[in-house]
Every structure is written in structure tokens, then in C-alpha cells.
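Follow-up to my earlier ticket, as requested here are the two runs.
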Amino acid sequence: MSGLTLPPEFTVRLTPRASRDEVSGWENGVLRVRVQSPPVDGRANESLIELLADRSGKPKSAFRIVRGARSRLKHVRLEG
């Protein structure tokens, strides 16, 4: 899913330890994302940010997890 358009603030449902990294799409206002990384030491969150940056064409520094860093449901802010 290249050219992903994202609002300034959005909710992500993250599934770690998936078979592949992918942005599944929007479901009821929540962006569904799967990453291969495990939810250990913030690796799944890092993979999420890298994947969102890659798919949207924005820098990784533009994304910030503002709520839910230790939860599957995360509130993400796109800055700039």
C-alpha cells in the first residue's frame, strides 16, 4: 500500500509477530497494521513507525505514539 494518506491524528491497531509487515487498511476508523517484530523493548513500535514512514513517504521523525505505547491500540500523531 504505497502512497498511504494519513490524517494528523489517528488510531492504529497493531498486531506484532505477524508473518509479514503490512498496512491492512482502515476498519471503522482504525488503521490495521501488522509487523513481524515482537512487542519487546519497543521493537514493534519502532517497526510500526518505520512502516508508516515508508508507506506514507514522510520521515520517521514526523510520527509520534502519543497513547498506547504498551497496548495494541495506539494513538499516533503525524507532526509537520
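Run two:
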Amino acid sequence: MTVIIRLSDEQATALEANATAEGLTVEQWIQKLAESGPKSARETRTGADLIAALQASPYRDIVIEPERYRLPVRGVSL
């Protein structure tokens, strides 16, 4: 069976990143998904998925690191 799925460039990049994160081609990754059946998102998400999604993001120039600053310290007697 042949199935054609139309994806945006961003979606295709994310799909490729997910497959690459598992060391598979896109076709192998989709076949693996089809064979495993539906699962909840909590069961299938890993840190590798998060990293792949961040790397595939079209908004890589946005800084999500919180601003760091030194907190004031009060005098303490021990």
C-alpha cells in the first residue's frame, strides 16, 4: 500500500529528526509506529524526543534560558 501525506517543511524536518533520533529512516520509523499501535503520549515521549523537537524548531534563535542574577545575601551568624 502506498500512502501520500502532505506535510509542511517544518513538519517534515521534525519527522526526520524523530526518525534520526532513533537511528532509523523515515520509512522505518513510520513502519515502527504503525506496528506498535496507539499509545498515550506519556508512554512514548523521551528526552531524545524533546531534544529532537528543539533541534528541529524553526524558532532556534529564540532564547529560552532564564535570566540569571545574583540574589542578595543577608548577614548570618553561626
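The only thing I checked on run two: The mean pLDDT is 83. Let me know what else you need.
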